[in-house]
Amino acid sequence: MAWPPWILVSIGVLAMVVLLVIAASAYRAPGSGFDPVPPGPPAMAVPIPAERASSAGQSNTEGPAPALPGLSPRRTDPPSPPSSASATAEPPTAAPPPRAPSRPAVPPRNPPSASPSAPPPPLEARYQVLQTFPGGFIGEVSIRNASRGDLGWVARVEYPGGRVVTAWLEGVTQGTFSDRRGTLIYRSGPDLAAGSSVLLRFHIESAHPHPASCAVSGRSCIGV
């Protein structure tokens, strides 16, 4: 029959306690009636058993700690230190993120070329009122030939509800004019030379000085 380890340890401790009690009683101090032995030859020393001597010398030492029930005292080796190869091993390097596919270089577009400046209109006209008076006014259209050749022209000025009394050119050969219910139409005589100007003036009655429209050869007058 196998005894549990803790029972064996308890029996050993109990035996040690009994031995300690016996040793203490054997070496008890003598009483008052003790008669010392007369001098004589030394008595033979009685050898003390090794077990009793060891028990007497260890009177103040504590016995081994009892083992916990259900556990057997076994040797436990400390964990072996990690090998140098595993201790110095470097962590795996993370893979670099994938690069986005490069786009092909797009050649720069040629900047739009500046459009050539539009040529100036061949005829330039400007409207203004020279004089006003009760019932009418005197108006003027300045006409300039901006082309490189001689040009004829036709002026058309509209005054709804008005009446054209007369129209003329200043200092040049006259042309012809007509009045169609407040609309003045004047046709030039000789062609206007390149780079030169002419003044068309007219007398209008029963109309507002600001005309409804003004144009020379289809181009609007400035100032209307």
The backbone outline, from C-alpha atoms, is rod-shaped
Helix and strand pattern: HHHEEEEEEEEE
Tell me the β content.
25-35%
**Low-confidence segments, ≥5 residues, pLDDT <50?**
51-61
The largest sheet has its strands arranged as: 5-6-3-8-9
Backbone structural class: alpha+beta
Q: Please tell me the overall pLDDT.
A: 77
Distance between the termini: 136 Å
How would you sum up the major sheet?
A: 5 strands, antiparallel
Indicate the radius of gyration in whole angstroms: 71 Å
Please bin the fraction of helical residues.
10-25%
H/I helix tally: 3
Tally of extended strands? 9
Description:
The chain has 224 residues and is α+β, with helices and mostly antiparallel strands. Helix content is 15%, strand content 25%. It has three helices and nine strands; from the N terminus they run αααβββββββββ. It has helices at 5-26, 50-57, 84-87, and strands at 123-133, 136-145, 154-158, 163-169, 176-179, 183-187, 197-205, 213-216, 219-220. The strands form two sheets. Strands 5-6-3-8-9 form a five-stranded antiparallel β-sheet, with no helix packed on it. A hairpin with a 2-residue loop joins β1 and β2. The chain starts with a helix and ends with a strand. Mean pLDDT is 77; it is low at 51-61.
